[in-house]
């Protein structure tokens, strides 16, 4: 009988290596390769031939299956992010920085469900029961009938929650602490993460119970462990926030039962996380008009949001001017600066440029190009943009402005929050422009000329 071979696995990307080395050749990380023993077979089939498969039933694409049922948590922002609530039998993975509020949010969700008559279980592998109870008392949730357990062994967890009275929702905090005796590796390794997640998701599918897994994140902000875990679960949520702000954003990056890129906004206080009813008011800043400030009418998922883009352009004393960006893509800023200087005649390259999105929000859509360009020109020329002005539009490398999607939703949100004027591209299709002035521009040169005509 051949001797089982040990293998060397990178704990950062999951790549296999023939021998140990200090640096992973796949991802370039140092000191991440760990020796793991062979995986023990689950059944005693040994070297027997695999049994013959059973043919399945083929069906067509068209059917009359109803929409999956939902477990509404009572947190409107949480339900919005998950697509209307939790789906029984689904696996949800929630990641975020340490101390961002993942455990607080999930404890509040479980308490709301338990008070509504749902059976909920909170399994903690990082904290003792006394610590969880102290947090519940601080949040005013001590009277909620949430069941607690401190377990890290996957078989013990499945035996505990797999009784006759199955829980509707189970939280595992966190998946990095789980281990299974089937794998000869330390907790937190790639093999243990994969085996633990697979066992819990299989339990959720078979029993119809929703399982929420809490995951740590790496220094670059991605959920630690192999990407296969994100592929196995049904929903992946990221809990984002700046430690310097009290606001938190729950973002869906994968959802098999709802839209992706949906967000929920929360505010952290001494009583836990509270929902923000009007996020646009949050990200619009103080509302006072100053040079370098522009309001961007953006869309996060299906939700339109107004947010303030702040720019500061100052003379540089360095040989290479500085570019500092918070909340936006630095490469996108470099492109906008190049287009402004080449096609709009705005001499800005010799200055230091600082760009910030108010409220700690991270903007990824190209529709923010026009608002960023307006903020830059406003700061450079010390011309103040009107406080009741909103902008959206994409900038091409030729300097022309291109229309963006969901223009009607952006316009409605701007009108609802008291904006009097909207600046966008000429080709933008707007169905209802009543009650608001729409200024359409063809290129950046027209934007720069219009801002220069404003009073300083």
Helix/strand layout:
Blueprint: E1 7-10, E2 16-17, E3 33-36, H1 76-82, E4 91-96, H2 102-115, E5 120-124, H3 129-139, E6 147-149, H4 154-161, E7 169-173, H5 190-207, E8 210-215, H6 228-232, E9 235-241, E10 247-255, E11 263-269, E12 272-275, H7 279-283, E13 293-300, E14 303-315, E15 323-326, H8 330-343, E16 351-357, H9 369-381, E17 389-391, E18 394-395, E19 401-402, H10 407-416, E20 421-425, E21 437-441, H11 444-452
Parallel strand pairs: 4-8, 4-9, 5-6, 5-7, 7-8, 13-17, 15-16, 17-20, 20-21
Antiparallel strand pairs: 1-2, 1-3, 9-10, 10-11, 11-12, 13-14, 14-16, 18-19
Helix pairs in contact: 9-11
Distance between the termini: 85 Å
Task: Note the main sheet.
Answer: 9 strands, mixed
> How many domains would you count in the coordinates?
3
What is CATH's topology name of the largest domain?
Answer: Rossmann fold
Q: CATH superfamily of the largest domain, called what?
A: P-loop containing nucleotide triphosphate hydrolases
| Average pLDDT taken over every residue | 87
What does this structure look like?
With 456 residues, the chain is α/β, with parallel strands linked by helices. It folds into three domains: 1-37, no CATH class; 76-277, P-loop containing nucleotide triphosphate hydrolases (Rossmann fold); 281-452, Ribosomal Protein S5, domain 2 (2-Layer Sandwich), CATH 3.30.230. Helices cover 25% and strands 24% of the residues. The protein has eleven helices and 21 strands. It has a nine-stranded mixed beta sheet. Helix 9 runs parallel beside helix 11 (444-452). The radius of gyration is 26 Å and the shape is globular.
């Amino acid at each position: 009988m051949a001797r089982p071979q040990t293998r060397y696995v990178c704990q950062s990307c999951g790549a296999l290596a023939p021998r140990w080395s200090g640096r992973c050749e796949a991802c370039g990380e140092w000191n991440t390769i760990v020796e793991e023993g062979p995986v023990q077979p689950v059944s005693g089939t040994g070297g027997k031939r695999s049994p013959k498969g059973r043919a399945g039933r083929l069906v067509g694409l068209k059917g009359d299956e109803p929409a999956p049922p939902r477990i509404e948590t009572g947190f409107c922002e949480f339900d919005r992010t998950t697509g209307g609530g939790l789906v029984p039998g689904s696996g949800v993975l929630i990641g975020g920085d340490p101390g961002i509020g993942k455990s607080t949010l999930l404890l509040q969700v479980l308490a709301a469900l338990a008070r509504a008559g749902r059976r909920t279980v909170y399994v903690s592998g990082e904290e003792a029961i006394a610590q969880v109870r102290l947090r519940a008392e601080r949040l005013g949730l001590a009277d909620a009938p949430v069941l607690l357990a401190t377990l890290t062994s996957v078989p013990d967890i499945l035996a505990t929650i797999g009784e006759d009275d199955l829980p509707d929702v189970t939280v595992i905090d966190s998946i990095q602490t789980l281990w299974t005796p089937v794998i000869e590796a330390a907790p937190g390794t790639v093999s243990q993460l994969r085996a633990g997640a697979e066992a819990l998701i299989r339990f959720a599918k078979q029993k119809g119970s929703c399982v929420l897994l809490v995951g740590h994140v790496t220094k670059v902000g991605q959920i630690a462990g192999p990407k296969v875990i994100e592929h196995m679960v049904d929903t992946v949520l990221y809990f984002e926030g700046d430690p310097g702000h009290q606001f938190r954003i729950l973002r869906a990056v994968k959802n098999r039962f709802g839209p992706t890129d949906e967000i929920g906004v929360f505010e952290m206080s001494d009583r836990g996380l509270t929902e923000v009813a009007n996020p646009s008011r949050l990200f619009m800043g103080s509302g006072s008009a100053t040079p370098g400030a522009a309001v961007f009418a953006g869309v996060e998922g299906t939700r339109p949001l107004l947010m303030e883009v702040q720019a500061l352009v100052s003379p540089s004393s360095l040989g290479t001017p500085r570019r500092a960006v918070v909340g936006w893509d630095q490469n996108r800023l470099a492109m906008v600066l190049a287009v402004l200087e080449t096609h709009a005649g705005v001499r800005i390259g010799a200055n230091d440029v600082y760009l910030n999105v108010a409220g700690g929000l991270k903007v990824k859509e190209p529709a923010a190009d026009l608002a960023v360009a307006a903020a830059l020109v406003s700061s450079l020329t010390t011309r103040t943009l009107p406080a009741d002005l909103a902008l959206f539009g994409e900038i091409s490398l030729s300097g022309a402005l291109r229309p963006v999607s969901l223009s009607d939703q952006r316009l409605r949100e701007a009108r609802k929050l008291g904006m009097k004027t909207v600046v966008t591209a000429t080709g933008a299709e707007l169905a209802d422009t009543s009650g608001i002035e729409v200024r359409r521009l063809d290129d950046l040169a027209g934007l720069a000329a219009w801002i220069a005509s404003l009073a300083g």
